[in-house]
Specification:
Length: about 1050
Amino acid sequence: MDPFDSNSTDQANLPRNMIENSMFEEEPDVVDLARDSTAFPTFPALDPDEVVYEPRSSRLLVRGLGENDMDEDEEDYESSARLLGMSFMNRSSAHRSNSSPYTRQAPPRSCSRPSARTMVVCVLFLVIVASMTMVLYFLPGCTFTKTGCRKPNQTAPIEPVYPVSTNGELFPWAQLRLPQSIRPVGYDLTLNPDLENMTFTGRAVINMSVRHDTNRIVLHSANFNITKASFKLGDEKARDVTVLEYKPRQQIAVKFSEDLKAGQFCVLTLEYSANLSHTYDGFYNSSYSDKNGKKRVLAATQFEPLSARKAFPCFDEPFFKATFLIRISRKPNYMTLSNMPKAKTTSLPNGLMQDEFEKTGVNMSTYLVAFIVADFSSTSKNVSETVVSVYSVPEKKEHTDYALDTASKLLEFYNNFFEINYPLKKLGEYTQALACYFILLQFFPFLLSSHTLSCFVSPLSDLVAIPDFLAGAMENWGLITFRETTLLVGKQSSSLEKQVVASVIAHELAHQWFGNLVTMRWWNDLWLNEGFATYMQYMSLQTVFPELDIGNLFLAVRFRALDKDALNSSHAVSTEVNTPEQVEEMFDSVSYEKGASILLMLNASLLEEQQFRKGIIQYLKQFSGLNTGTDDLWNSLTQVSTQHQNVSEMMSSWTSQKGFPLVTVSRKGDEVTLTQEHFLLTSENATHTSSLWNIPVTYVNDSCSLAPECRQVFTLKTKSGTFKLPESVKWLKLNYRNTGFYIVDYGDEGWAALLDALSHNVSVLTHEDRASLIYNVFALSRLGRVSFHQILNLLNYIFNETETSPVTEALLQLNNINQLLDKRQEHGLVARMKTYILHHFGSLMDKQTWEEEKSVSKQELRSVLLETACSLNKENCSQQAKALFKQYVESNGTMRIPGDLQQVVFTVAAQSAEDWSTLLSMYGHATYDSEKRKMLRGLASTQDTRHIVWLLKAGLKGDLIQTQELPLVISTVCKGFAGYLFAWDFIQENWDRLIEKFPVGSFAIQSIIKSVTSQFSTQAQLNQVQGFFSSLKERGSQMRSVQEALETIKLNKRWVDNNLSALQKWL
Ligand SMILES: [Zn+2]
């Protein structure tokens, strides 16, 4: 998924906070046996679901869902674990208290006569049990627990928790993660949506295999009215069964009086009805107005991460891959789309049509299933045996050409890069196609040329623009869904607008291999999907569309990832998650941007040509169709190294701990010493953790600093390390082109030498290195390592700077400070900051033109410079923008403002009451989606508080301004002085309605929290924010983004308090 609704870098820095797992006792994912074995006291023997002995570690774990398939060779571990589980359980069940509010299930279990094999296995078990009993006898029971041995008075272990189903019976499962005794094999789904009444009925036939003996089937289901349920075991007759439901965990279960046996196959058939969702997930309804102003309705899906269960009952975890056969009924004037090509259409007696899609030939996770019922139109193209189509509402069909062309080129690139053709190809297709081919050849050879395509069932890659869509895009296998703004551009759109579309398509297409073909086992390793897709999005664009100049954006994105990861509330790339909110919160800048950053660092530091690509190919081939964890990727990259470079050793330090290092450089004679420490921003000044990273430090110096050959590498694994450098070397720049995920402090002398070099000639360093120095000095100022005076010293070189990335980074940092001062009402300092910015960047601002500009990089530079200039009321800027707006209005839609200038023009226009109204009416009629969004940002930048309040309310209501745009409205409002307190009031007053639309933990909520709080810097504001969020309890108080907000306010306060006098002195 691409959660960011645009490519703008301020989206990259989404909030994130550490959630303590307060639900640990109740919903264990990984629980220590001795402590929590009582969670299953009522079953005489634990299911293997509940106990897994993990041979790689010395710990004994009980898992809600083991990470490993329990294959034949793991049976021994499993068996010993089962027995161990029993012994632990029996011992601890003595401590049960009767005070639990939950009741427990009675133990149903019977023994069957053992086979010879079982006997042998049992003997083995007994040996293991005997040895383990001895170990247990000599070791205290708490040896294996996380908490270690407790004091004698802390005896009562956690109570077993079997919740009560809606019908009053005990629900036979007590964890968030499903048991793995039953695996889905295939789903046969029939859906009948009624778009008029916003309801649907469904029938799910789920074929399953029994992996381990069990007397229950537990799966996910949310808010269905289940009307009929039947069960069929092997060749037996189907019989009706009772379905138990436990709503808080969105689970249903069927209990059996006798065990289903390992190796058996069974079928559960559920018929149900439900409402189409009114939010942006599950099977949801959406609408748009056609060109005649008539409302048209449609239904679409968004399942990632946990919403497939809202459309059909299923085993809704990425690990449970299965095949899918989908049928959807529709009115004759509608069309349907799903992951696979359509197989046939039949007329139903009620006048409806039913489309049936090919069964997926590959196993697929539930979050990748998708279907759409709409009246879209499309354009198509055949790319190396794959039919690529782009769908949109009929009015916007002409805006699909660029996406079609881009997707086709990128698909070809990925086919070659991964050496695996677009993977949604089925074995059956070849057979079918072959049969079809021979029939044609035999009887209708004349048809072969024109009909070959329709006869050969080709894999499909559909890209669909959905009018109501919250995320940027979603990589559903074969049916990728987008926001209109991330897929549709007109022919005359600027290359900057095309860059957005191309990079989102590149991201989603990369997922078709990374994520869809090979999928993370669980959401803790979401970065394997998202970090990789994000990295590939930049890498593929650099190769396929160099003219789109994606490098500047990728660099900015890496800086924003560092911003977030510097906070104590950040988290490791690979982090344990359990609750739905925690899963939602994984869709953040750490999984995406830090994930991409460390892959870039890795690729840049590998010793062999093509090692990265070879490792990726090896990984995709080895795990094709399966699930993986982070180690699997590192192992594949290690295996392909002919020089035995241990990738796991290096990379695990970057994925298993949060944060990143600060590398400090000191030189004495010909010796350079590098020291690493955790770059941790904390308001308490307690910056020391013992974290160490395996850092591939790169450096260049004054003798050779630009070409890649100049780069030298020093691996810093320990706290400090030294290398030699001739004393004649004048300066040293570390982290060549900022490909490493760390910050460098050069010390007073080092900084002075670099500044000296830059002030003589800016071109002694690459533009990425210059931007990196600017970013580093501001970051060090936040850490308290350098003074504000040092920032200004470095920026003295900027008069000669003309490149995009250093200028935009410097302006972004200065604007952030300016906004903090503005909100603190330090009017004098704000005025001096304005003078400072105009003095340093004024001449570059004046050099910008207002005509069409071809170069993306120049467009990026120009839009940032002019937006800053106009926001500071630089005279000629506002005049130019107003004039352009006037021409635009008078042209009646025939003239177009260059895409990169639209934002500044609309923002300036929105500052006058009259033009604000004009802009609003234009917004209502605009057809170019990217333009429309810029109009909205313009509207929200008004300083008229009545307009601000109107916009916030309209966004929540969702008719004139779509609710999907509310996060954008809020973030824009919060940048201005007039509205930021209104926005804060607004989210407090409307919190419950907000989380109805944007689930707790979702990226939209993360973004809203960050927008409204990131510019607070006083104690009173801190108290208010703390008070509000802690009052929310389960409605959001536990979010990482709340922790991050609180930390940010404290850090803002500290920075302003510490730097006010310096600002007064130096600005
Ligand atoms: Zn993604």
